[in-house]
Amino acid sequence: MLKTLLFFFLWVTVLFAQIPLGYYDLAAGKSGADLKTALHEIISEHTVLLYGELWAAFEKTDRAADGSVWEMFSECIFELFADQCGIARTICDCYSREHSFPRSWYGGSDIVPMHTDLFHIFPIDQIINSQRGNFPYGEVGAINNIREGGKGKFGRPREGLGYNETSVFEPDDEYKGDIARTFFYMVTRYENILEDWYEFEGARRMLNGTAYPAFREWALEMLVRWHLNDPVSQKEIDRNNAIYKLQNNRNPFIDNPDFVLQIWRNTPPNTSVVRQFSNKKETISVGIQNQTLRINTSLREDGRIYCINGKLLKNFNGSSVDLSTFSRGVYILKLGRNNLKFTLD
């Protein structure tokens, strides 16, 4: 058993590796607006790429296991380089460079470094890219107008979203967290110029014109929910590491998902520890807050908590476990075949 756990811990270490030692030291002990500003100072100086260099960058950042383009917004299968646009006459003709934070929201295609910042630029089918245009992300109501072959939804917002001014584009559930963490990155990396962006009509659909909290209430509520419901994936981790090699900065919300709640829900540092890990079927999110262990997963497995020496302490079945009787120390959570080490401070 101990050999299995040691192997798993090694795997987790590799999964979350490549964050430079001391990279986030400036953010230690901060929360709210102060943490957001500290992260801005850490990531705000990056190597600016040329727009034409993005095609080659996609080979490093968005290459699927089979060598094709990892395209999040359609069912199309594209060959890197050979299928880049060009002019598209129908869906799956070619892929283009999607600015998930639309160019018109910050002033246009000649504005750098935003225009070539890979953290918000993804390969996408050209027809789907055109349909999305500069509409905001959101949650669609009953009528879905996405083009055949596209992923996600496009249409009028659902009732109760808090936004009904324009149509919205809703990504598939498996990529909602990716988009949320992209937007958290954008309002952090560029927090010093967010007030300037507010003059653009498109930006006003999701932003409120301030450096903090940066988002309109409806958008922030939705993005935080997307972030929690779709935890960080291996795809995002690999992409973050690849972009770091090209731009020399990172997306903090991929490296440490806890930053989201510490900034926008003012959760004090070290009181809410969130970890994610993946197996072939499921991504599992585990959080510890107010002496309660919370588990977000669709797996229906009984859970166990062990001491670090392997002694069984508790059996449970459910999404939360009371830890108030546990003393400080290191513990092992076992859920089905998955094992996770956590610490109570």
What would the keywords be for this entry?
345 residues, alpha+beta, Immunoglobulin-like, four-stranded antiparallel beta sheet, 10 helices
Overview of the structural elements:
By secondary structure, the protein is of the alpha+beta class. The chain folds into 2 domains: 31-255, no CATH class; 275-344, Sandwich (Immunoglobulin-like), CATH 2.60.40.3080. The chain is built from 10 helices and 12 strands. It has helices at residues 2-15, 32-43, 54-61, 126-132, 173-189, 194-197, 217-229, 234-247, 252-255, 258-264, and strands spanning 95-99, 121-125, 153-155, 168-170, 272-278, 283-289, 292-296, 303-307, 312-316, 320-322, 329-335, 338-344. Strands 5-6-7-10 form a 4-stranded antiparallel beta sheet, covered by helices on one side. A 4-stranded antiparallel beta sheet has the order 9-8-11-12, with helices on one face. β5 (272-278) and β6 form a beta hairpin. It is globular, with a radius of gyration of 21 Å. Residues 1-17 and 271-281 have low confidence and may be disordered.
